Amino acid sequence: MTAQTVEYIRYRVPEERSAEFLAAYTRAAIPLAASPQCVDYELSRCEEDTDRYILRITWTSTEDHLQGFRTSELFPPFLAEIRPYVSDIEEMRHYRPTDVRGTGSAVPTLYDWAGGAEAFSRLTEVFYGKVLKDDVLAPVFAGLPPDHAEHVALWLAEVFGGPQAYSQTQGGHDHMVAKHFGKNITEAQRRRWVSLIQDAADEAGLPTDAEFRSAFLAYVEWGTRLAVYFSGPNAGPPGEQPVPKWNWGAAPPYQG
Q: In a 3-state reduction of DSSP, which class is residue 46?
């Protein structure tokens, strides 16, 4: 996967032209949003110096921006709206995101929202109790180590924003993936896994609000589909990868 890039365009627009400038970008946002190369965008205005604006556009890649959007039929109507403000640009560059990123404490992690370590321990205890009695899944987990549920609880806790206990004691994403090699998990087994863990989440008392459950299910769907791939005959080791960090509606860019 090509790395995304963030374009920053810094403007200095006098107050008397600000209303027209904002209106122009409101119109320009229509072709911008329609571009398959555009991930998201945001125009911000400085509070201390209201003549200054920063437009942030996330592109699928720098090449996609320059060779895709700028050569597409969407670019002319976009440019027509912002052309009067080109001379007001102070900077226009592409930036590559670094690994220094995170979520502040103002937004609770999925881990905290779920109830912390105890919630995930309850979840896996209930879940594997169901798995071992299930005709479809029991064969997959035959000879399950006694600490398996505990390790999965640590995994899920870390995935959803909790302590890095799994990474510190077991390894990263590649370690978890390796546990599925050669198991030849079927689609029927994957779907049963998804169904049972949702039932277990209900019984374990995990939050039932739509925002949490949609994020929870999104990870379960993503993770189980990767498990099916890596359990198959054509899968190779994914290389060293950290434990994915799941958030409210965000997915890490790992590929099978």
A: coil
pTM for the whole structure? 0.68
How does pLDDT run across 122-166, given as a tens digit for each residue? 999 999 999 999 999 999 988 888 899 999 999 999 999 999 999
Domain ranges of the chain: 5-95, 110-231
Summarize pLDDT for 31-60 with one digit per residue, the tens. Answer: 999 999 999 999 999 999 999 999 999 999
CB 110 within 8 A of CB 246: yes
Class of domain 5-95: alpha beta
d(CA 155, CA 108): 18
Q: Could you tell me the sign of the dihedral formed by the alpha carbons of 165, 166, 167, 168, in that order? A: positive
Task: List all residues 6 or more positions away from 104 whose beta carbon is below 8 Å from its beta carbon.
Answer: none
In CATH, 110-231 is 1.10.490.10? yes
* Angstrom distance (rounded) from CA 123 to CA 200: 6
Q: In what order do the strands lie in the sheet with 89-95?
A: 38-45, 52-59, 5-12, 89-95
Rounded Cα–Cα distance for residues 125 and 152 (Å): 10
Amino acid at 236: G
Q: 250: closest CA among 109, 125, 50?
A: 109
Residue owning tokens 């995930």: 120
